[in-house]
Amino acid sequence: MTNYIPISQTYIPDGMIDLGVGTPGFDLLAHDILRRAAEACFAKNDPTFLQYGTEQGNGYFRIVLANFLSRGYGFPVDPSTLFVTNGISNALDLICAFFTHPGDTIFVEEPSYFLALRIFRDHGLRLLPIQTDENGLIIEDLEEKLVKEQPKFLYIIPTFQNPGGHTLTQDRRDQLVQLSQEHDFLIVADEVYHFLNYSDKQIKPFAAYTDLETVISLSTFSKILAPGLRLGWIQAHPSKIKPLINNGLMDSGGGLNPFTSAIVLELLEAGDLDKNITTLIATYSSRLKVMDAALRRELPQAEFETPQGGFFFWVRLPGMDGGGLREKARAFNVGFRQGALFSSQGGMPDYVRLCYTFYDEEKIEAGIRRIRQCLEVFLK
Ligand SMILES: Cc1ncc(COP(=O)(O)O)c(C=O)c1O
């Protein structure tokens, strides 16, 4: 450890297979695509993109992004509804800053993305859990909580949820939107995994509802190009975009990512993002199948649904303590995330989250084998 110079958030000791990380594999970061795009951008000899950027994000970039989204979503996206961010984490932080006050109540799915929970806590928000099942958020539970509570917003990962893997059904999407209007709360939909769909099923994103003032859709290039870009976008009604543009942060620093968005614009125009997504889907589907088979073979006691997209298996090991198991697993050179991290209430102790996108097939099999070996010792 003494010689460890931090250069990436993803630090994994030599020999360890950490199925806990939730990032693209190093082999799948869009290095060549980005090199070509950067060369094309600099070859233009127009330094405008090195200047402070326009507050909402480069207008031409937003047009090109809107074209990509219109094709991908299957409905027209208006560039004036897009606001360029430094990724979803940044978008969540901005939404908390501009739409909430410390002490406000928000609703989160149980379980939810643990690092978003931390952002909400940083803003002094009170987190109330809404239960989920294999079809996503349970609307009856939401309705019950709405009788007593007035949340500022509901944070939801509607598609290939992190960690649960589930996707909210269309019926529930419609019901949720209806409730947001009746009870006047915002839906903050984190659509990070929307384009990583390994099934034939078309899913209508919450971006489709952003003509309403109660729906905000967030997305990012982190999982479809590279997290190091720190580039993403918010899609929302103009009334929600306005506070994001008119503030001191924008006055002083300008738009959030003029440099990177100018480079990504090049690869969007070249059609390279579509190609990259096709490659990722092929690679991740294969890794998913291998993890699915390994889990069934090595851990017959495990309870899980096979995900249809995204990054994760959410696995219940009945009677086990995920946190304790993780500690023991270090000795077997394998890692994962324990379920309790993803619960706003510290629940779900017998779950673990396993990521299948970071390692190749061989390492995934070896990782699951190591978990089995660890369990054998643990259970003795
Ligand atoms: C559900 C979810 N939201 C947001 C993020 C982070 O997105 P970004 O890199 O755009 O901040 C992740 C990354 O793991 C995620 O799983």
Query: Taking Cα atoms only, what radius of gyration do you get, to the nearest Å?
Result: 21 Å
- Quick one: biggest sheet? 8 strands, mixed
Mean pLDDT: 96
The helix content, as a percent range, equals: 40-55%
Low-confidence stretches: none
For the termini, the CA-CA separation is 32 Å
Beta-strand residue fraction: 5-15%
* DSSP strand tally: 13
Report the principal-axis shape: globular
Walk across the major sheet and give the strand order. Answer: 2-9-8-7-6-3-4-5
**Structural class given helices, strands, pairing?**
alpha/beta
Q: Which molecules are bound in this entry? A: pyridoxal-5'-phosphate
Helical segment count:
12
Oligomer: single chain
The helix-strand sequence is EHHEHEHEEHEHEEEHHHHEHEEEH
List the helices and strands and how they pair.
Layout lengths: L16 E2 L12 H13 L15 H15 L8 E4 L2 H12 L5 E6 L3 H9 L3 E8 L2 E2 L1 H10 L4 E4 L13 H14 L2 E5 L24 E6 L11 E5 L1 H8 L2 H6 L4 H12 L2 H27 L13 E5 L5 H8 L4 E2 L1 E2 L12 E5 L5 H19 L1
Parallel strand pairs: 1-11, 3-4, 3-6, 6-7, 7-8
Antiparallel strand pairs: 2-9, 4-5, 8-9, 10-13, 12-13
Helix pairs in contact: 1-9, 2-9, 3-4, 10-12
The structure holds pyridoxal-5'-phosphate.
